[in-house]
Design brief:
Layout: H1 3-16, E1 29-35, H2 53-61, E2 63-69, H3 75-84, H4 88-91, H5 100-103, H6 110-116, E3 120-125, E4 142-144, E5 155-160, E6 170-174, H7 182-195, E7 202-208, E8 215-218, H8 219-223, H9 249-256, H10 260-290, E9 297-303, H11 322-325, E10 329-332, E11 343-348, H12 352-359, E12 388-394, E13 397-403, E14 407-412, E15 419-422, H13 440-453
Parallel strand pairs: 1-7, 1-9, 2-11, 3-4, 3-7, 6-8
Antiparallel strand pairs: 2-10, 5-6, 9-10, 12-13, 13-14, 14-15
Length: 456
């Protein structure tokens, strides 16, 4: 049994006056919050402008992971990986179209594990990659996918930033309030669920859409970011050229045509959507406390990947750079010793499955590719993983990256366009050192780590 589960049961027993261990121990509840396209532009990660008081509160109450890396830097492959506990080489999901059960039909997903253990599993919004054909009936007892109201689709102002060339690249300051938007409905339904009667422990998954495009939020959130309060990113002079297979193609040409006005509108809309989703998360966290669930509920909050906001001229995800592969991750577990202490050790999203399962006292399936990081919740400074791995495919060529605490190395199967960045001196990854003879030993070591990470 997980030590944390024992702490939860012991505390509950004292409150209810239980003696000894004659009664069966209830498992802790799980609140699993997944956010779409959220980078680490949050107050708790040190951003000077973006307002995220509720995620900041969770960071203070639990633990913020500063070096948490997804295994693929866009939606469906990333979610398929961390919800199965398997690396992309095993799920064989590297696009937004394939369902993981097409390739691994008998896999036991994270929510399915809890369902089979007797939990009530409920999904609100986007947890897997959308609804319909991308759903997974084996995982859930209850499913809802709120769509918002007609009023929430009306706008005060907004436009497509590309003249229609990229249909997704649209922002709107919306009419109505929070609950006229899908994410507001998700929060309201989560609050109602948490206030209800629970005859058995629950696994509640709340999948929020924003700040994913289209960048739509109620007007009040746009008003928090007047354009003059924002500062555009500029790549530093002398930055190394960006390989086109990382950032290129027709989409990059559209981004290159942005004026500063478009860049500011994009950034403003993204930040407004971030603060909007933070407000919805705050309502859910408040409900946990209001209903007396805080002492027996594990809380995991993460995003499916990071995002570029103009770095290297890119306004999207899908790269093998830090901005895309690094993602927010926060965890609260009753009984953890290091509450409020950030962790700078490397963790991977493939580690989430065994961590959640272990903290709940459940036995995870054999063969998972991650490692529970529960010990870091007590001692975040202890030695941990040597490396984190991410990958993406361009056409028929696989690209892979390895991140250690000091280095990021990028390698493609055809041997072209290697990149090496020293995070001790270059946290923005602007100077590619791969061609420097002095780094040959480092590259050989990191390349060997990459090759060893491949699952065949």
């Amino acid at each position: 049994m997980s030590r944390y589960r024992g702490v939860l049961v012991s505390s509950l027993g004292l409150v209810l006056g239980w003696a000894g261990s004659a009664l069966a121990a209830p498992g802790p509840n799980v609140l699993f919050i997944a956010i779409d396209d959220l980078r680490t532009d949050l107050g708790c990660y040190g951003h000077p402008v973006v307002k995220t008081p509720h995620m900041d509160r969770l960071s203070r109450r639990g633990m913020r992971f500063d070096r948490a890396y997804v295994q693929v830097s866009f939606c469906n492959p990333s979610r398929s990986s961390f919800l199965t506990g398997l690396r992309p080489d095993a799920t064989r999901v590297l696009n937004n179209e394939d369902h993981f059960r097409k390739n691994i039909p008998d896999v036991v997903t994270l929510p399915q594990l809890f369902r089979e253990a007797g939990y009530h599993t409920s999904r609100l919004g986007k947890i897997y990659h959308g609804a319909g054909d991308m759903e997974d009936p084996k995982s859930w007892d209850a499913v809802e996918y709120p769509k918002g109201t007609p009023l929430g689709k009306e706008k005060h102002e907004g436009r497509n930033l590309t003249g229609g060339k990229l249909k997704w690249c649209t922002w709107a300051s919306a009419k109505g309030g929070d609950e006229d938007q899908p994410d507001g409905e998700i929060a309201a339904k989560a609050v109602a669920f948490l206030a209800g009667r629970h005859d058995k422990p629950f696994f509640l998954a709340a999948g929020f859409h924003k700040p994913h495009d289209p960048f739509v939020a109620p007007k009040a959130y746009f008003d928090m970011y007047p354009p003059e309060s924002l500062r555009l990113h500029r790549d530093p002079p002398g930055a190394s050229p960006t390989p086109e297979r990382q950032v290129g193609g027709a989409t990059k040409k559209v981004f290159d045509a942005f004026t500063d006005r478009e860049r500011l509108e994009f950034q403003r809309a993204y930040h407004a959507c971030t603060t909007f989703v933070d407000a919805q998360i705050g309502k859910v966290l408040d409900a946990v406390e209001k209903n007396g669930l805080g002492g027996n509920t594990l809380i995991f909050l993460l995003s499916d990947h990071g995002y570029h906001l103009g770095e290297r001229g890119w306004w999207n995800k899908t790269t093998l750079y830090e901005y895309s592969c690094r993602s927010p991750l926060m965890v609260y577990a009753p009984g953890m010793k290091a509450k409020g202490t950030p962790c700078s050790r490397l963790v991977e999203f493939v580690d989430v499955y065994p961590t959640v399962a272990g903290l709940a006292g459940l036995k995870a399936p054999a063969g998972l590719h991650g490692r529970s990081f529960a010990p870091l919740l007590d001692d975040p400074a202890q030695p941990w993983k040597e490396a984190a791995f991410s990958q993406v495919r361009r056409g028929q060529v696989m690209g892979r990256t390895v991140r250690t605490e000091r280095w990021r190395y990028v390698e493609w199967e055809d041997g072209a366009d290697p990149e090496l960045f020293d995070h001790d001196a270059d946290a923005g990854e602007w100077k590619n050192l791969a061609a420097e003879p002095a780094q040959a030993t480092t590259i050989a070591r990191l390349s060997a780590l990459l090759r060893a990470s491949v699952i065949r």
